[in-house]
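Incident log, structure service

09:12 report received: a user says their structure output differs between two submissions of the same chain.
09:20 pulled the input from the user's history:
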Amino acid sequence: MAFTKGSSRLWGLGLGLVMAAAVSTASTAQEVIRIGAPLPLTGPLSPEGVKQQRGYNLWAKAANTKGGITAGGKTYKVEIVYVDYESNTPRAVQSAERLITSDKVNFLFSPFGSGAAKAASSVSERYRIPTIAATASSVEVYDQGYKYLFGTFTPNDTLTNPLADIVSKAGQNVKTIAIYARNDLFPRAIAKEMEKSAKARGIEVVSFDEYAIGTMDHASALTLMLQRKPEALGRRLGKSTGWILKAKLRRAHVAMIAGAEYRAVDDAGLHYVVDGAPHVLDVDHVILCAGQEPERGLYDDLVALGAPARLIGGADVAAELDALRAIGQATHLAVAI
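09:34 re-ran on a clean worker, output below:
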């Protein structure tokens, strides 16, 4: 992340305003303002975390060189306290609380990205610690009604609308696009906003896929995107496989819905959209078919939290395109639960 002179002034102005509003957080007897900065300095997000740390250090050095920050008629030196949360969002939340309760920081810089920023914001709000979200632009971060959370970015559509304009006006007669986003709040939010921007310009989104944090090999996902079309379930299966599997599903009274976009799972059930119309399935169990790349991230997180979870199909073992094996596992799991 690059910081220009202009953005440095924005940081100084933003923090100065927050300090002026909450100067009581730091006693007038203090000469140092301690700012907590939980960052992903190791793990998959570490390249971004390290760049962010360099930016913070650059700002702190510039502020202290000028004598510090003045608020409430007193000038304070800046000290930044870092904690590495290892690219793990639950640890980011824990790190924010540790910085507040153990390191006694007066302010916080939020963790990297919208997902971790939103998760940690509940902690700073509970302790009434002013927090600047320097890398969070998703609306979902700021629609919580929090009083101690401050953002520096513009909304996501200020990024996706110009990008969609570039695609639609490129002179290449672009009719379809595929969207591929990291499975985290900000990338997902940007991807959803890009989907809206594209559709508003008559561009069809034929594929919308996500990948886990830390994924390095995207070859198979890109291959699937190139092959995918918004069509009926099983249309491109071979005759023997497709007919057999769809016949079994019909006999079991399974409703097959094509072109569904999944939005949320909550106490009301599974929320999804088809052709722009919202629907809710009143279910108490959801079986996630995650494709043909093994993905254990969600499963491992759920197990770590003590939540009951099972891993089946291609999300568990993706050695081959074995639909019968996956359906068999899903059937046994459905019977078990």
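09:41 both user submissions now match this output. Likely a transient worker issue. Closing.
09:42 reviewer note: The first strand starts at residue 32 and ends at 39. The two ends are 47 Å apart (CA to CA).
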